[in-house]
Amino acid sequence: MTDQTTPQTDRPSVLFVCVHNAGRSQMAAGWLNHLSGGAVEVRSAGSMPADQINPVAVEAMLEAGVDIRAEQPKVLTTEAVQASDVVITMGCGDVCPIFPGKRYEDWKLDDPAGQGIDSVRPIRDEIRGRVETLLDELGVPAAR
Question: On the chain, which terminus has fewer CB atoms closer than 10 Å, C or N?
Fold first, then answer.
């Protein structure tokens, strides 16, 4: 029999999914890592991952003090969904596998692809607000 009360299993896990895993989902993962201080296990993935993260999304996050330059777009796997408590989709439609007992949300956000920094900043800021709400719902205090 395994012990299910280890601290690792008590840590909530969140998966952010968008089509290319290059903008919105990467910014959301960056915010959640930053604001949770490691109290949440964070994943991000895309149904059709891009070759690289959107450089304007990287720039916008750096302006806010969050460095996501080392991240790479990752392909969405069934295992990533199964391993996550909360799955947040951002415009990927029906490509996300559904498993009973998981919490699913769909965040309607503008896609930063092809947009300039002035258009990406409001998306970045909206994602931060949603991540702060998510942390409240998970009972994890946001780092300031």
Answer: N
